[in-house]
Design a protein that fits this description.
There is one protein chain. By secondary structure, the chain is an alpha/beta fold. It has 14 helices and six strands. The chain has one domain.
Length: 296
């Protein structure tokens, strides 16, 4: 199965094209007609790594943000202390007992890892103490950057900068500790690492499908590619998806519901696009709860 690293890449970026002409992953959420005076929520599928060609965003998106009172993000990276981040990563993300990744994975996985590190020009000594979950994220991030994308141009960073300039309220759905724990405590981490390594060679080509589906707003095909196909190939990934997506989706929905129950206000929510789509995605969950969710 060769879609796993692609899956993590999709958490970072979905398009090379100018987003002004793209449909994008953008929805408006309203309460039922009987509660028309309640708040409105906008849902924007985030791309955490992007490039300059991604801007400007569509006018509908910018207008919705301008009308919003608050920006809601997974994590307010403006308030993250790099020292705290490094400390948390060191506490849980690396082996401190002298073991290396070579000692804890199979010979097959180790040989593939060594080859992939050479391919990406990553010195083994710089990552040898990393646990599998951290290695997966490292490989995905390096792959994205080598494709020419930058975290500083990501959609979440873009709106955080605008919110700060406009003095809008910023609400974080998760804490730094929560996000780090999610990735470091991921179940079946070695299996995830193994499949990520085998998908490395085809990641850039497979991104073409991701780009097409995002540009055309085809969330059904995106969901099939990233979720349904992966789970059909590897049922053991079910627990991984529960940890990375479905459990988090449920918690995010509860917080979004609290916003929708407010007597007034507009909330512009920016989360990873993978959280929004599919049967267990945020969009479908809100619809099941009776909210009106419209693609914009």
């Amino acid at each position: 199965m060769k879609k796993i690293l692609l899956f993590f890449l999709c958490l970072f970026i979905f398009s090379h094209a100018n987003a002004e002409n793209d449909k994008a992953f953008f929805w408006q959420v309203k309460p039922s007609q009987t509660a028309s005076k309640q708040a409105i929520v906008y849902l924007m599928g985030s791309i955490h790594f992007a490039d300059k060609s991604f801007y400007p965003l569509r006018k509908k998106i910018e207008t919705a943000f301008a009308k919003s009172d608050s920006l809601v993000v997974e994590l307010d990276i403006n308030n993250i202390d790099p020292q705290t981040y490094n400390q948390l990563l060191a506490q849980k993300g690396v082996y401190k007992d002298g073991r290396t990744i070579k000692d804890v994975v199979s010979e097959e996985t180790w040989l593939q890892l060594r080859q992939s590190l050479q391919q990406l020009n990553i010195p083994y000594d710089s990552v040898k103490s990393y646990k599998p979950g951290v290695l997966v994220l490292t490989l995905a991030a390096v792959q994205v950057m080598q494709m020419g994308f930058n975290a500083e141009l990501g959609i979440d960073v873009y709106f955080l900068s605008k919110a700060k300039a406009k003095q809008k309220k910023i609400i974080a759905l998760e804490t730094l500790t929560q996000q780090i724990n999610i990735f470091l405590d991921i179940p079946n981490a070695e299996l995830l690492l193994k499949e990520s390594l085998y998908s490395l060679d085809e990641a850039e080509l497979q991104m073409a499908e991701i780009v097409e589906y995002w540009k055309t707003g085809n969330n059904k095909k995106m969901n099939k590619l990233l979720f349904e196909d992966a789970l059909n190939d590897y049922p053991a990934f079910d627990k991984i998806y529960d940890s990375l997506f479905y459990d988090r989706n449920n918690k995010m929905v509860l917080k979004i519901e609290q916003m929708l129950k407010q007597p007034k206000g507009r909330y512009f929510v920016v989360v990873g696009s993978g959280h929004l789509i599919g049967e267990k995605g945020i969009v479908n969950a809100l619809r099941k709860k009776g909210y009106t969710v419209q693609r914009r």
